[in-house]
Write a structure and sequence with these properties.
Layout: H1 2-40, H2 72-76, H3 80-87, H4 94-103, H5 105-111, E1 119-123, H6 129-138, E2 143-148, H7 150-164, E3 173-177, E4 192-198, H8 203-206, H9 211-221, E5 222-233, H10 252-261, E6 265-270, E7 298-304
Parallel strand pairs: 1-2, 1-4, 2-3, 4-5
Antiparallel strand pairs: 5-7, 6-7
Length: 312
């Protein structure tokens, strides 16, 4: 009997020991899991479940990535189609439309890289054909300056130029009666985005204009990065400026070197007014032959005032 009780007591003690060891094992397991959670951080959201749109307090959510903003010229630069729409405006005169046939105005406007709000100038505005196109291109928020010397006004331009300036589309145009050697007043220096000279540069020679002074004044009037576009009748290779009065032409290389000497950088040329069939031996004035089956070859050159120009 005593033996049986002893055996039972031993069995009970073994069972108690096993249960205790199991409890210790379970507690140890839970402790390990808790330590792992503490070290690894909060439970991650499964990949197939949407993450909550919550930002920690005091941390701003980063803005969505946006394209880099473009400059004004990139945003609203006049396209060829837009330029053609300006040329096709129904309120333009019949005379201007006739001039379009030899001037290719849409290509000229597009080459100038214009946009609304620009301040531009037309050297040798004459009757104002180009000036009006510029006014239409820069719009009511822009401004155009049309320059003519006394000789041009007295000989042929005063009446038609004055009449054109009365048109509503010319409301943002300022008349500049100034000589070619000093085309802009000091208050315009550093304020212009574009300057264009259409078919007048060659006249500077026989009119004895100080061409270096002229180019320096254009340079001063432009903003850094501003463009100067010159269009003129091509002279024969090697002719230089010899036919400036008799043929109204100038050699392209001569003009380019003179403009670059003022500090301008050459940007590019355009071919839309070229005529390889031009013999370059006739008077290129429209009323002396051109437009009557003898279109002259014309070069179109673009120059830039450097962004790092001294004194700009």
């Amino acid at each position: 009997m005593r033996v049986a009780v002893g055996v039972l007591t031993s069995v009970h003690m073994c069972i108690h020991l096993v249960v205790r060891q199991q409890r210790l094992l379970i507690l140890s397991l839970f402790a390990s899991v808790g330590l792992a959670i503490a070290c690894d951080g909060p439970t991650q959201v499964p990949a197939n479940e949407p993450k909550p749109n919550v930002e920690p307090a005091g941390i701003e959510s980063p803005a969505a990535e946006q394209p880099a903003p473009k400059s004004g010229t990139e945003v609203a630069e006049l396209s060829l189609a837009q330029a053609q729409a300006i040329v096709d405006a129904t309120d333009r005169s019949a005379d201007d439309r006739k001039t379009d046939e030899r001037r290719k105005p849409a290509q000229t406007l597009a080459f100038l890289q214009l946009y609304e709000g620009m301040r531009v100038a037309d050297i040798g505005a004459g009757f104002g054909y180009t000036t009006e196109l510029l006014a239409r291109a820069v719009g009511q928020t822009g401004h155009v300056y049309g320059q003519n010397p006394a000789f041009v006004l007295e000989k042929f331009a005063e009446k038609p130029w004055t009449e054109r300036l009365q048109k509503p589309v010319m409301a943002q145009t300022t008349r500049l009666d100034r000589e070619f050697s000093d085309p802009f007043p000091d208050e315009l220096h550093g304020s212009l985005d574009r300057v264009i000279n259409v078919l007048f540069y060659h006249d500077f020679v026989w009119m004895e204009t100080d061409r270096a002074a002229h180019n320096s004044d254009v340079f001063a009037a432009l903003k850094p990065g501003g463009l100067y576009v010159v269009i003129d009748h091509s002279a024969a290779a090697g002719a230089g400026v010899s036919g400036s009065k008799t043929l109204h032409r100038i050699e392209e290389s001569v003009l380019r070197s003179e403009v670059e000497a003022a500090g301008f950088e050459f940007v590019e040329s355009a071919e839309f007014l070229r005529n390889p069939a031009d013999t370059r031996d006739f008077n290129a004035l429209p009323w002396r032959g051109e437009g009557d089956g003898q279109l002259s070859d014309k070069f179109v050159l673009k120059f830039r005032k450097p962004n790092t120009a001294v004194g700009s």
